[in-house]
Amino acid sequence: MMKVRIAAGLTVVAPLLTFIAVLLTRNGIVSLDVGLDVLTIQVAQVASWVALAFAVLSLALSLPQFGRLGVVSFVIVLVCGAVAGAFFVQSRAIAVAGPLDVSTDLTEPPAVPGATGTPVGCPGVAAVMRQTAPAEATAALQAAGFSITESQLFRSRGVRDGFWFGMGHEAHIRIRPGRTDVRVVARYDHTDGGETCKIVSQMIDALQTAP
User: Fold this and answer.
1) Are 154 and 137 in contact (CB under 8 A)?
2) Distances from the Cα of 52 to the Cαs of 13, 78, 176, in angstroms?
3) What is the Cα–Cα distance from 190 to 171, expressed in whole angstroms?
4) Strands 179-186 and 169-176: what pairing?
5) CA–CA separation, 172 vs 61, rounded Å?
6) How far apart are the C-alpha atoms of 50 and 5, rounded to whole Å?
7) According to the model, what pLDDT value does residue 176 have?
8) Cβ contacts of residue 12 below 8 Å, gap of 6+?
9) Rounded alpha-carbon distances, angstroms, from residue 110 to 1, 52, 83, 113, 195
């Protein structure tokens, strides 16, 4: 029973470490590299695999008393396996490098305050070849999780403060006769699994399908 209780307690260690890393990073106590790469992807992920190994051991030791402890031990193994699997998948996904400054117009990209780099395009993502309504641009920003900071006849801007480690973005939808362009800039310098491209694609889809 003691081993089963320890296994049950270990199931929460990795998620708890991740939560602490998020709080430390969002409050500026540690850098994004430390909070995400070290505390989460390294330390918390190792903790999840240790928990899974102990849970499997606990299940093996509880087999002689399966009627009393086996079911609980099996459930703990499933939970630990799901947590460890989630860490493995997410760590591989976040490691994928993607552009952090994306625009549908590379010749004259929409202006984003503070953006100093040169934007790039995303495969399969292009400008909307019509003049969208300001309300459509605002709705596309909000659907992508942005708070509106400016909404005028020919442009809408917004910011998004991502919960996970504060990995936020700034966006600008520029409206011109016969064309609407989108630019999204990440407010961090870290691989994000192509998140910036996904955001641009989501907003373009919303503008394309707007009534």
Assistant:
1) no
2) 11, 9, 55
3) 18
4) antiparallel
5) 59
6) 15
7) 96
8) none
9) 62, 48, 41, 10, 19
Tokens of 81: 């396996």
> Position of tokens 């801007």?
157
| Residue in 88, 173, 168 with CA at minimum distance from that of residue 127 | 173
**Amino acid at residue number 100:** L
Q: How many residues does the chain have?
A: 211
pLDDT of residue 1: 58
CA distance 52 to 13: 11
Rg (CA), the chain: 23
Provide the token pair at 95: 């490691």
How many CB atoms are located within 10 Å of the residue 186 CB?
Answer: 22
Q: Which of 97, 92, 131, 100 is nearest to 200 (CA)?
A: 100
What percent of the chain is helix, strand and coil (3-state, nearest 5)?
A: 55, 15, 30
Give the DSSP per-residue string, 131-189: ---HHHHHHHHHHTTPEEEEE-SSEEEEEE--TGGG--EEEEEEEETTEEEEEEEESS-
Which amino acid is residue 155, in one-letter code?
R
- CB-facing half-sphere around the CA of 10: CA atoms within 13 A: 27
Q: What percent of the chain has pLDDT over 90?
A: 65
Please tell me the predicted confidence (pLDDT) of residue 210.
Answer: 76
